[in-house]
Design goal:
about 150 residues; alpha+beta; 6-stranded mixed sheet; 2 helices; globular
Length: about 150
Amino acid sequence: MYSLNLPTYEAKIRKNSNGLEIFDPLRRKYIALTPEEWVRQHFVNYLINYKNYPASLMANEAGIKLNSLTRRCDTVVYNNQLEPLMIIEYKESKVQITQNVFDQVVRYNTVLKVPYIVVSNGISHYCCRMNYEDQSFEYLTDIPEYQSLR
């Protein structure tokens, strides 16, 4: 595929009659290799191997009910009590991170109310820490280590 602003890793890729697939260790199966999936798998690898996020407390394509519709969060990170801590939204690297992208993940957060929201296109990564007491948020300069999430 192409280079991202994330550490490289040895992705498991295979070809079938529909094209290329990449192995998703969280879903434990091969998924169609789209540009967005390329970003997701690199970001998940980064969280697990560089930020010490436990794979067992992460879910890709986690379903939520938003109004009467079912939506899927790209990745959700949980604590040991399986309470959501972080929502991550991915876009392919050619997609600019705009207010519309943040609005999408903020809509999901009306259901989950996580302390952290991350948006990445594989090149640019944005992480916000939410403060529900004063209805504000703070942009962080880096993605926090798992142990520091609260």
